Amino acid sequence: MPSPPAQERRALTIVLSVLIIDMIGFGIVLPVMPDLIVGLTHTTLGDAARKAGWLMGAFAIMQFMFGPVLGGLGDRFGRRPVILMSMVAFSLDYFMMGLAPTYGWLFVTRAIAGIAGATFVPATAYIADITPPERRAQNFGLIGAAFGLGFTIGPAIGGLLGSFGTRAPFFVAGGLALINATAGFFLLPESLSPERRRPFSLARANPLGTFRSLTRHKHARPLFVAWFLWILAHQAYPSTWAFFTKLKFGWSDHAVGASLAYAGLTMALAQAFVTRRLIPRIGERRAILLGLTIGMAGFLANALVPYGWMLYAVSSLAALQGLVFPSMNSTLSKLVAPNEQGELQGGVASMQSVAAIIGPLLMTNVLARFTQAGGPVWFPGAAYVLSAMLALASLIVVITLARGVFAGVKQPEPTAPR
Known about the structure:
The chain is mostly helical. The chain has 18 helices and no strands. Helix 1 (about 5-30) packs parallel to helix 7 and helix 4 runs antiparallel to helix 5. The mean pLDDT is about 80.
């Protein structure tokens, strides 16, 4: 019988492999998304960026509404079935996007994907299940490494597949998600034992109910605010990067894919070899402050560099912004009971979804405003200046309002069924 650490390592390896493959599929389609929207709408890149923002908003609205439901279902029935359902839904989404005859069709596919959520929510709760509180920050850091590795491989493949047509990457991503679901069915064990499960409550699973449940920890509210501002700032990357680099530097699909792959590689290396060692040494609060500062500097550098190759240097330095997520998530996970981890991650997903509703619309409209004819000034990097301002606001909140969150954090006992 394997020792508990050995069981933890085995389960962690499997769930991280699931996340890596999931992110490869997501990354594959990013380089060609601008071309797909331009082809379906017959518009300019700037206007296509706006339309991409509406698509991302539709996905986020559905995820906001259903993310807490997935978290609650995971607390009731276990993480495994929720993870598998999400992967199947994303497979369907990619196939339908590849077949999309109109721009409106894309809204239907994004809604399906948003309802089913993403593997991030149950996978994060899964890791909380199998990891003692004192090691959660390190293991949550591996989620960032998995995302980074997936982003290293996915966009590079997507940029190459774009030479076979705009639709090809979507079919490959769909097939990959389906293979991932099949492998997960046979290999992924359940992490939440029956005695640690709680009854499903719709009152707690709806978005507002989840927020009410999370905010009962009054001293943690400033950290939720800081995290929300940070997530909002990060919406500039998925919503504008491909458009930004094509508009400012004239990059091809392959060049966009290569830049995303490099950014993913630096993030994966930082999470795997730096953040897991650095967070225990400097503490979660200092790690958050350092990550926010580096991230703010990275946003500004992206906006201002005059040559495209410089973005690679920025990615190398900005990779340490990955300190923020595992440190914040670890701190918050210690504030809720073991049988509330799914609810916590569902609430975090709802918060991310609100940011993902507002952020893409905000960032893509800023990009379009500063790149269209008649705009105030030609400045494709305007969205990244806005992101730097949001990161600064998050940093101020952590410094001034969230100090008490990190003092004497102790995980409560499991809550009684409601």
